[in-house]
TrEMBL record:
It comes from the Eukaryota. This is F-box domain-containing protein. Residues 31-78 form the F-box domain. SUPFAM superfamilies: F-box domain. It comes from Exidia glandulosa HHB12029. It holds the Pfam family F-box-like. Signal peptide: none annotated.
């Protein structure tokens, strides 16, 4: 049965036969269609529409079907090798995922989707971590993509071998419409000494590329291998500072650079190369260094720092280094973002971001389960001076804001993120509000204007897989009372949160209430 045989009227009629069900169905006269339907109607539709007619796979599980129905990702965003299936799933697509046997690929599915998607622009997410030893499959994939290279707008390739990306670019030497390219190499491969990472072997053309995120070295002369005339944002994880120089020299419009350091032998780099990188980056507005450790701090700062820089961001592996560096960097005229982050922080993430009145931003972050030294964190906040914004993650080790020696009279905005939305409910938040914002703490934020509570973890980008945090209206009111001390909070914003209780009660404490971007007026 072909999906093209069904009209909007047919599907809507089916919905009307079931009380309480409704559907808003886009045109289904062609394979590229978008459905917006409740779960019950999804199951009914799929009882009549075999998945093979629109995705090229005969047997799929409910998760894949829901993904296909809920958005236009079915044809526009082709996501291969990356789907996760629940335990016990008998889905025929399981062998196409990274969880399946490494020799299996879904090339038949890829060919079907690409052929049926006509001339639509494509966003490809290709995960081939499990195919490191199977170069033949990658070569076949590159041959399949070659006729459609002009349609690809975004491409993300995650791989366990640096050979995969060169193989794809060897077959498709030009991606004329590609605007975003992300190439991620497994950290364990590099740190284990199995592969030093050389992504680009042959010359290639990326005339429209605007964003590049790449892990690896350039194996050939960068001047002859590629040109990036439109690139404005570069994020590179490198083993040799000469790689930065090659990328920057080939990107005349570069505005932002993020450098992640993974090799502690970096200080032994050629001083001439370091000076060349510093000169090449002199005209770049924003530069960020991630993963700084004592062995790399000096050379990295010498290479990246520039008096004309508009923004310099430094990320440290240890909190002690960040605290020591704060005194050194706080007097710079350019805005500086200072952060602390441990590498293995996913999937739980805690962070504190503070911004002062001059626009200088400081960020502190830590992996889940690690105990922060509150005295050092509070010391950072005290050093920041006149804070205008504070953003942090809800953790087991909470700030004792009442211990701050001076009230933050300039603080206007506070953002709170859950570390684990599935594990924290409104009862935990009640205890948090009672323990942290006691009667003596309200003086710390006398000018607070905006409170934002976000139920999503900062590093989880796929919000469809993250349950909404459950909050009690009463608990939110208690938190507001302690924060603003008897006055109305001008703005309360709730993101990815499910409220339990009478929402209208919040209007007694809040002037403007926003839930997932929608303003809720007084009732």
């Amino acid at each position: 049965m072909n999906i093209a045989k069904y009209s909007s009227t047919t599907l809507l009629s089916a919905a009307q036969e079931e009380p309480g069900l409704s559907a808003s169905v886009a045109s289904v006269s062609r394979p590229c269609c978008t459905f917006s339907v409740p779960q019950e109607l999804r199951e009914m539709i799929w009882a009549y529409l075999p998945m093979r007619d629109c995705f090229g796979v005969a047997q799929v599980c409910r998760e894949w079907r829901a993904c296909a129905l809920s958005s236009s990702r079915l044809w526009r965003n082709v996501d291969f090798f990356a789907k996760q299936h629940p335990d016990g799933c008998a889905c025929g697509c399981k062998h196409y995922d990274k969880s399946g046997p490494p020799i299996d690929t879904n090339l038949v599915c890829i060919r079907t989707v690409l052929s049926r998607s006509s001339s639509l622009p494509l966003s490809l997410n290709i995960n081939i971590l499990g195919l490191r030893a199977h170069g033949a499959a990658v070569l076949e994939l590159s041959r399949v993509l070659q006729p459609h290279a002009a349609r690809i707008r975004e491409m993300c390739i995650a791989t366990g071998s640096s050979h995969a990306v060169p193989q794809i670019f060897s077959s498709c030497s030009s991606f004329p419409a590609l605007r975003r390219l992300t190439c991620k190499l497994d950290y364990a491969v590099v740190w284990g000494g199995h592969d030093k990472g050389s992504f680009f072997w042959n010359p290639f053309e990326l005339p429209c590329l605007e964003y590049l995120d790449v892990f690896g070295s350039v194996a050939v002369d960068g001047q002859r291998s590629f040109s990036l005339p439109c690139l404005h944002t570069l994020r590179c994880t490198f083993l040799d500072p000469a790689d930065i120089l090659i990328y920057v020299q080939n990107a005349p419009r570069l505005k932002a650079v993020t450098v992640e350091c993974v090799d502690v032998s970096f200080p032994d780099g050629d001083p001439t190369v370091l000076a060349a990188v510093r000169n090449a980056l002199a005209g770049v507005d924003t530069v960020e260094a991630v993963g700084l450790v004592p062995e790399t701090e000096g050379p990295i700062l010498d290479m990246l720092a520039a008096s004309s820089r508009r923004n310099l961001a430094l990320n440290y592996d240890t909190l002690a280094i960040a605290v020591d560096a704060y005194d050194t960097l706080r007097d710079l005229q350019a805005p500086v973002q200072l952060s602390f982050e441990r590498r293995a922080c996913e999937p739980k993430y805690h962070a504190v971001t503070v911004s002062d009145q001059r626009g200088l931003t400081r960020t502190l972050s830590s992996e889940c389960g690690s105990l922060w030294d509150n005295s050092e964190l509070l010391n950072i906040i005290e050093l920041a001076g006149e804070l205008s914004a504070l953003e942090w993650g809800l953790t087991d080790c909470l700030f004792e804001f009442a211990t701050l020696s001076q009230p933050q009279e300039h603080l206007r905005t506070m953002v709170i993120h859950w570390a684990d939305p599935a594990a924290i409910d409104y009862q935990d938040l009640t205890e948090w509000a009672s323990s942290v914002f006691d009667s003596s703490a309200h003086h710390v934020f006398p000018a607070l204007e905006t409170l934002c509570i976000d139920g999503r973890c900062r590093v989880w980008h796929d919000t469809l897989r993250v349950p909404k945090a459950l909050l009690s209206v009463t608990t939110v009111r208690v938190a507001i009372t302690h924060l603003v001390s008897g006055r109305k909070l001008p703005i309360l914003e709730l993101r990815h949160v499910t409220l339990e209780g009478d929402v209208s009660l919040l209007h007694r404490d809040v002037t403007a209430l926003f839930v997932d971007g929608q303003r809720l007026g007084p009732t």
